[in-house]
């Protein structure tokens, strides 16, 4: 928790949470994804406990925001980050705020010490922002080739929160006609404001790419002393009816049979259930969300496409497959003679040891649609591990 100054009620915090975060990979917008057991944005809000906060949000996210930030003013964002922040500043103008911290909702690890330094810096200048000096060599490139060098002297990596005198940054936003500024320091400088550089922090990372979530988990674990391992489990269930044909695909293996399975793709019921189990562990819905059956491009598609996508989505969020268990429910064909081949096929697609894959079968004792041999059902469980 930041060290709250006596006049904390006059210091506003604007947190941006209206973006979609497409570079973070498949899944919900990054501010709503899980980090250490709660949404990223919940960590960000906690960093500013004790200070008045306003959130910029996407209209579709209002219910999510109200759930984790009850009583916090919510302002719908604009087409750009700059427009979103101006909307928030305008909404809070005239309410007695003299200073404002503007922060990315996807930076959940801001420290109390950094917040305190920024607030103190506003006693010396109308604006202050955290940054880290660039220490790596810099290249200019084109078409995958190095085209020249860029001196790194005097270059910094910008962070947030960025701190301002409230009226000064509001005036800078009102004077901006483009609404495309990369950050508020750009607008402050365009308005002639002096901006102090405050030492940033390596832990104050912005979650941008899938791998950033694993880094953030490790930082949280280090701070709390908790183990860095994160384990998730998902379940999947699928059914396909029999139709005319001479074979079925089950868990990546083609098996001769007197009938086929009906489906928009190759109807591999086992692989579909396993794919849904992985998506479920990631809270990413099911196959239909990612590969709609209404889309003709997936007609007759091989199911390994779906499973590979789910596995890549897991890897993109820093997870590996711990183990998988698939149960096929049918009277025929007999699964036992093919179970080992199914294990091998699934392991190749997933990229893991076959010993981590279980494929087994059961009958329904001649009960129900599987007992009447009208179709095949499959159940699957997947465990994902992040270390």
UniProtKB/TrEMBL annotation:
Bifunctional enzyme that catalyzes the formation of 4-diphosphocytidyl-2-C-methyl-D-erythritol from CTP and 2-C-methyl-D-erythritol 4-phosphate (MEP) (IspD), and catalyzes the conversion of 4-diphosphocytidyl-2-C-methyl-D-erythritol 2-phosphate (CDP-ME2P) to 2-C-methyl-D-erythritol 2,4-cyclodiphosphate (ME-CPP) with a corresponding release of cytidine 5-monophosphate (CMP) (IspF). 4-CDP-2-C-methyl-D-erythritol 2-phosphate binds at residues 238-240, 264-265, 286-288, 362-365, 369, 372. It holds the Pfam family IspD. The record marks 152, 206 as: Positions MEP for the nucleophilic attack. GO terms for molecular function: 2-C-methyl-D-erythritol 2,4-cyclodiphosphate synthase activity; 2-C-methyl-D-erythritol 4-phosphate cytidylyltransferase activity; metal ion binding. This is Bifunctional enzyme IspD/IspF. Transmembrane segments: none annotated. Keywords: Isoprene biosynthesis, Lyase, Metal-binding, Multifunctional enzyme, Nucleotidyltransferase, Transferase. It comes from Pseudogemmobacter humi. One of its GO terms (biological process) is terpenoid biosynthetic process. It catalyses: 2-C-methyl-D-erythritol 4-phosphate + CTP + H(+) = 4-CDP-2-C-methyl-D-erythritol + diphosphate; 4-CDP-2-C-methyl-D-erythritol 2-phosphate = 2-C-methyl-D-erythritol 2,4-cyclic diphosphate + CMP.
